[in-house]
Amino acid sequence: SQIFYYSTGMSVGIVASLLIIIFMLSKFMPKKSPIYIILIGGWSFSLYLIQLVFKNLQEIWRCYWQYLLSYVLAVGFMSFAVCYKYGPLENERSINLLTWTLQLMGLCFMYSSIQIPHIALAIIITALCTKSLEYPIHWLYITY
């Protein structure tokens, strides 16, 4: 889908540009900077900062809406231009590879989102079986 392609490309561009900006700013910080605390703290500290930003997102949006809107529009437009230049996938192999990758990621997310592993495996097996049963049921309907 072209909508999925362009929206995903723009979202990845916006998030990736934030990471690039953080990396560039870390080069200008002194040696004993908070960036090293973030690197040492790992995901837990990063998730705390993300939670803090989301907690204060309404205040950030109200005070700095011009900067936030201009950043999202500028980076979104550049990401859209890059996606438009390369165009959506047209090769059947690439489309199948993307489809299988997205389905595998979905199964991994399903497994990691359920706390009881046996139930997670049962749900994944059920999902795989229902996907596999789609074709025989369709063949039986055509035969009938």
TrEMBL record:
The annotated topology with respect to the bilayer is: Multi-pass membrane protein
Residues spanning the signal sequence: none
> Which parts of the chain span the membrane according to its record?
6-26, 33-52, 64-83, 95-114
Which keywords appear in this protein's UniProt record, sorted alphabetically?
Answer: Membrane, Nucleus, Signal, Transmembrane, Transmembrane helix
Primary localization: nucleus
In terms of Pfam families, this protein maps to: NEMP (PF10225)
Subcellular location, in the record's words?
Nucleus inner membrane
Q: Name the domain of life.
A: Eukaryota
GO cellular component terms attached to this protein's record: nuclear inner membrane
Q: What family does the database annotate?
A: Belongs to the NEMP family.
| Protein name, as recorded | Transmembrane protein 194A-like
Q: Which organism is it from?
A: Lipotes vexillifer
What does the record give as the organism's lineage? Eukaryota, Metazoa, Chordata, Craniata, Vertebrata
